[in-house]
Amino acid sequence: MDAFNTYKKGADLQFMVDECLNRGKVLQLKKDETLERAGEPARWIGFIKSGYLKYVVTNPVEEKAYNTGFVFEGELVADYPNCLYGAPSDVTIVAGKDCTLKAIERESIQRMYEEDPHLMNIGKRIGEGLFLQTYTRFLNFYRTDAQTRYEQLLQRCPNIVQKLPLQEIASYLRVTPTTVSSIRKKMLGKERG
Predict the structure, then answer these.
(1) DSSP-derived 3-state class of residue 51
(2) In sequence order, what are the residues at sequence separation of 6 or more whose Cβ sits closer than 8 angstroms to the Cβ of residue 127?
């Protein structure tokens, strides 16, 4: 699902993947178990061997949780950059279904960055890519409607509907599952008409 997490473009993350695979601890999470919890020090960088994880934030006024992102098999997962500094996590990272990952504690990557300026530059590019991805998503909540956001998601990740339940896609788009169903019906009507 490379097109979902666009921050990776232009950054060679192989050193992190290798570090996780070669030195990582095997973590097995059941569906709904957490890797990181909002408010607690972020500590893991992991490579997902199977399953997927989702980034979740809770709106305390609405008392509702929202999915803000997903990470799929073959990708790295972390609350970056909080994990680099052991800062409190801004998100809860939850298994969307049973997962297996190989994860390293933050000190391992932090040490690599300190020892190798080239790797530190890659880390900087990761942060810049995350900012751009997040900033674009933030602006799209203001400049597009729910249907346009859904269509853009499908253009970027055509297989997302096979990977995620309707409720999770709706939460990511910050609409109800009923809204996503209506959008899908409308789109099907256009295809047939």
Answers:
(1) coil
(2) 80, 81
Asked whether residue 31 carries a pLDDT value surpassing 80, the answer given is yes
Going from the C-alpha of 45 to that of each of 115, 131, 163, the distances in angstroms are 18, 18, 22
CA dist., res. 43 & res. 84, Å (int): 8
Contact 106, 86 (CB under 8 A): yes
Using an 8 Å Cβ cutoff, are 157 and 3 in contact? Answer: yes
Q: How many residues does the chain have?
A: 193
Distance in angstroms (rounded) separating the CA atoms of residues 99 and 6: 22
β-pairing, 64-72 with 52-59? Answer: antiparallel
Distance CA 98, CA 94 (A): 10
- pLDDT tens column, 69-86: 999 999 999 998 899 888
DSSP symbol at 12? -
Asked if residue 145 lies in contact with residue 180, where contact means CB atoms within 8 angstroms, the answer is no
d(CA 95, CA 73): 12
> What's the whole-number mean pLDDT along residues 22-37?
97
How far does CA 30 lie from the centroid of its chain?
Answer: 18
